[in-house]
Amino acid sequence: MTAFFTETVPGLFNYWVVIALMMIGFYTVIAHDNLVKKLIGLNVFQTSVFILYISMGTIRGATAPILMDGPAGDHAVYAHPLPQVLILTAIVVGVSTTALGLALIVRIHEAYGSIEEDDVLAADFATQDAEQAEEDERSRAAKAAEPHAPSGGDDGAEHEDDPRR
């Protein structure tokens, strides 16, 4: 049992870091109402995914995938460049997404005066209720102003006993 803790656990240190960062990021998104803190939590979670992919793509004793001449190049172990390329692309996308998220948070603050999720939702529900009441009032006013057709009059619908057929 001690061999497990002395050999395996330190060898999996990167994965323990990934798990810790994922849980910290997830907790931050779930527990906080502040939109900026939620965005930071998403970034921490995203960073844990980056570390996970880099850790899986690591080969001990590998060199950069640059071909070398001579006897050293014949038996060299090369690291696969695809995980690093994918993570570089993901980092660029992550930075862009973060910038967009921050711009949306600024716009939400301008519109609602707060970046707390509860305040924004309360203001949004109040706006929806006011718009619904206004729409109901317009509907009632339109029905009251609408002239009623006399009974037995032509309502514009076609009937089966139409003699013109």
Automatic annotation (TrEMBL):
Entry keywords, A to Z: Cell membrane, Membrane, Transmembrane, Transmembrane helix, Ubiquinone
Membrane topology: Multi-pass membrane protein
Stretch list, region Disordered: 125-165
GO cellular component, one term: plasma membrane
Domain of life: Bacteria
Subcellular location(s) of the protein: Cell membrane
Spans through the membrane: 12-30, 42-62, 82-106
Keyword set includes Nucleotidyltransferase: no
Entries under Gene3D superfamilies matching the protein: 1.10.287.3510
Residue ranges with Basic and acidic residues bias: 137-146
Biased composition (Acidic residues): 155-165
Main localization category: membrane
Record family assignment: Belongs to the CPA3 antiporters (TC 2.A.63) subunit C family.
NCBIfam families noted in UniProt: PRK07375.1-6 (NF005621), PRK07375.2-3 (NF005624)
Protein name: NADH-ubiquinone oxidoreductase chain 4L
